[in-house]
Amino acid sequence: MTRLLVLHGPNLNMLGVREPALYGSSGLDAINARLGQRAAAAGIEIECFQTNAEHALIDRIQQAPAAGVDAMIINPAAFTHTSVALRDALLAVGTPFIEVHLSNIHAREPFRQHSYLSDIASGVIAGLGPMGYELALSALLETTQRN
């Protein structure tokens, strides 16, 4: 069975409350539940994890290979633009991942337009709201079934 780790970065626990005009009205629990349903229907084991702490994301990434994680979806949120440490952790484990952003980071403030992760990601999905997570799941399912 394919194992998928979904990582949500800082402030994503505030979805549905924080700037709904920008990030939408869906809460993180609803996004995770929908992903869980889709994963279960596809026979994928999924674990979702959210934290506001950079070190906790790094710990989860480093634990992924030993936990049998085949692929990851990560919305690094603000760490996208600041965390070389997150990049280094993803490079160290070598687990394929898709970077997801609810908003289109390329249409936002200049400091949000750079990602430390995009060039090492298997793919990047931005600006499609919660559907971006589902598209990432579909893409990972397609690629893991081919391998």
UniProtKB/TrEMBL annotation:
PANTHER family: CATABOLIC 3-DEHYDROQUINASE. It is an enzyme of class 4 (lyase). The lineage of its organism: Bacteria, Pseudomonadati, Pseudomonadota, Gammaproteobacteria, Chromatiales. The record marks R18 as: Transition state stabilizer. One of its GO terms (biological process) is aromatic amino acid family biosynthetic process. Catalyzes a trans-dehydration via an enolate intermediate. Homododecamer. Substrate binds at N75, H81, D88, L102, S103, R112. Pfam families: DHquinase_II (PF01220). Keywords: Amino-acid biosynthesis, Aromatic amino acid biosynthesis, Lyase. HAMAP family: AroQ. This is 3-dehydroquinate dehydratase. Belongs to the type-II 3-dehydroquinase family. The active site is at Y23, H101. Its EC number is 4.2.1.10.
